[in-house]
Amino acid sequence: MMVSIGAVSKETPVVTIVHDCQVMDIPEELLEEHDIAVDYILTPTRVITTGCERPQPMGITWSKISREMMEKIPVLRSLRAREQQAGKDVTLQGEHQHLPEPGRQQAVPLSAGRRPPDTPGPEANSMEAARGSPAGEGAPLAADVYVGNLPRDARVSDLKRALRELGSVPLRLTWQGPQRRAFLRYPDSAAAQQAVSCLQGLRLGTDTLRVALARQQRDK
Asked: Cα–Cα distance between 137 and 87 in angstroms, integer?
């Protein structure tokens, strides 16, 4: 909305303030076109420059806006009217979009353009296949790997870089810097065990990290 009214542009930096334990990576597949990437993260102990190069959304994604939201937020109505006059697609969530065809207008069925929110599509099946889900079986249980003894001045980008260099990138990284630890989530126990073996002896700076399956770490 701020882009639509000219209050911000793609050069405007995005800053957030959180606690150190709230800093975490989000898998790319969870992001949608309307999600805003953060440029700077301020915590009680540091300032983190994310270096994210993901494009910022340039305006309102009208297909995410419902009729109910339009009624509750009056400014949306005026913005929609303005963009409609400019020739932009302002089709709302649940509306049929009309596409021109030679000699006539034909409504495109809703099912052809968008799926109901809870209906998995082909990309969902592809994601499970990419994560190694055996055919005919349920989704594999994710397995967490514990990484401890992180240097006090370590940043999440340091650990991410080391993981990439070793070819052991997790589905999700949960950073707990104040506790000098992090948790890595892998698609299944076999991938987690392989990561533990691969990361043995990993060093950040002068410190050798402790790496183990998270379940084993809790049992100690």
From this structure: 48
